[in-house]
Design brief:
The chain is α+β, with helices and mostly antiparallel strands. Helix content is 63%, strand content 13%. The chain has a domain of 74 residues: Winged helix-like DNA-binding domain superfamily/Winged helix DNA-binding domain (Arc Repressor Mutant, subunit A, Orthogonal Bundle). The protein is globular and about 50 Å long.
């Protein structure tokens, strides 16, 4: 099945989204959220990031649609947005395939 070509605007928007993922701390946050929803306090403890730094990253991840958030009283909870876990799985499979291919080439 042939895919529709992306417009210049779509390409620009996709590139902006992938730039958000270029920061290791943000990937660590997403990885932590793969096992379920967390409060900001829990994320600070699990990632080792300071609260101000973590909040900055979470704000950017939320603005670009990578995480969802909900407020319960004074506590804010974050979870992976729909399909982000799929994106992580796709990249993991691709990296695994590349590593396997390189090992075979060196053997």
């Amino acid at each position: 099945m042939r895919k529709t070509a992306l417009t210049a605007d779509a390409i620009r928007l996709i590139a902006e989204r992938f730039k958000v993922l270029a920061e290791p701390a943000r990937l660590e946050i997403l990885n932590t959220l793969r096992s379920g929803e967390r409060s900001v306090t829990e994320l600070v403890g699990e990632t080792g990031l300071g609260q101000a730094n973590l909040s900055k990253h979470l704000q950017l991840l939320h603005a670009h649609g990578f995480v969802a958030r909900r407020k319960e009283g004074v506590t804010v909870y974050y979870a992976l947005a729909e399909s982000v876990d799929d994106l992580c799985d796709i990249m993991t499979r691709q990296l695994t395939a590349q590593a396997t291919s390189r090992r075979r080439a060196l053997a």
